[in-house]
Design brief:
alpha/beta, Rossmann fold, 11 strands, 39% helix, Glycosyltransferase family 1 protein
Length: 326
């Protein structure tokens, strides 16, 4: 491992906070932000696993440099011995980064030189209490209010649940880790058919790890993870959601089957397994890419940078064209 080129996780100095944790699997409210759950948390997991990497507040002149899209300046260009790896999430790709990490496998299919790695499950997660058994009573949403379908914000939704003897809970941000009293989650951005190819399946992962039943929207990230009908229930309308909840309430055995299946699926996105994916990516893909970049001639490097610049200009022209004619 001593022969590895230096690997850095870059978090700009302005984003270093006094209360940043030094272990990854602990509740810290700022882990709800991309720059921290992707950059800091990944660094902490790899460091805890003994992988040689360093968290820095300034961009080094040499080495493999990994950062969230919000942390890399737009005009940043890789130097002679720099490999820039942009953690893209739900952002536009960085124009000059040689590699990108995406959080949805469908995004990796359309973005050149990108690799899919799942986002970590909720740190510090408290699972559903075992003594709740097959009770179906509390239905919750974990997430930003603006990402919840309007139909699920309407008072009529909570009234329909109440008629079934169910409680509707929009979990406050400071309790996004606490599933102890939750029996099922609902996560729907829109009931219209949309793929959301740059969104992750994290809410599904969290439900498996927490032991709750997931009812989810028609998103590509969830669909990419589905192996059986027990993995989650896809809902395309309020009426469909109500029908599924009624079915679950009337069938405790089905609730048990879904939770048992979720326990099995949770192992796939355990921190240990995701650490293995990061290790493989860094040692089998990134290092070779870094060596290849360092050995590339100066003329080839300039050609790459010029190609990126021309692509920026072309995209700008296309955007302007759309504004004028659409």
């Amino acid at each position: 491992m001593n022969s590895l080129p230096p690997i850095y996780f870059y978090l700009p100095e302005k984003d270093w906070l006094d209360d940043m944790p030094n272990i990854p699997d602990v509740y810290w409210e700022e882990f709800g932000r991309g720059i921290y759950c992707w950059t800091l948390q990944t660094y902490l997991y790899l460091k805890a696993d003994g992988f040689p990497c360093k968290l820095v507040k300034n961009i080094p002149d040499e080495g493999i440099i990994i950062a969230h899209r919000d942390s890399f300046p737009y005009e940043l260009r890789p130097k002679e011995k720099q490999l820039l790896i942009c953690i893209k999430p739900d952002r536009n790709p960085h124009p000059y980064a040689q590699l990108h990490i995406v959080q949805n496998p469908q995004d990796a299919k359309v973005l050149k030189n990108s690799y899919y790695i799942p986002l970590w499950r909720q740190p510090g997660l408290i699972s559903r209490k075992l003594e709740r058994h097959n009770l179906l009573e509390n239905i919750a949403y974990f997430g930003i209010n603006s990402n919840l379908a309007p139909e699920l914000k309407d008072p009529s939704w909570s009234r329909k649940l109440a008629e079934l003897g169910l409680n509707w809970i929009i979990m406050p941000r400071n309790r996004w880790y606490d599933y102890s009293e939750v029996d099922a989650i609902i996560a729907v951005r829109s009931f219209d058919q949309q793929s959301y190819i740059d969104k992750p399946a994290t809410k599904l992962y969290n439900s498996w790890h927490a032991g709750v039943i997931p009812l989810l929207g028609q998103e590509s990230a969830f669909q990419s993870e589905q192996k059986t009908d027990l993995d989650y229930f896809e809902i395309s309308s309020v009426d469909e959601a109500i029908a599924i909840l009624k079915q679950l309430k009337d069938n405790p055995k089905l609730c048990q089957q879904v939770r048992k299946n979720g326990q099995k699926r949770a192992s796939e996105t355990s921190p240990g397994n995701i650490v293995k994916q990061w290790r493989y990516f860094l040692t089998n893909i990134v290092i070779l890419k870094y060596i290849d970049w360092c050995n590339t001639s100066r003329g080839q490097k300039q050609f790459y940078l010029q190609s990126c610049y021309l692509k920026i200009k072309l995209n700008a022209l296309l955007d302007k064209f759309k504004e004028l004619f659409y």
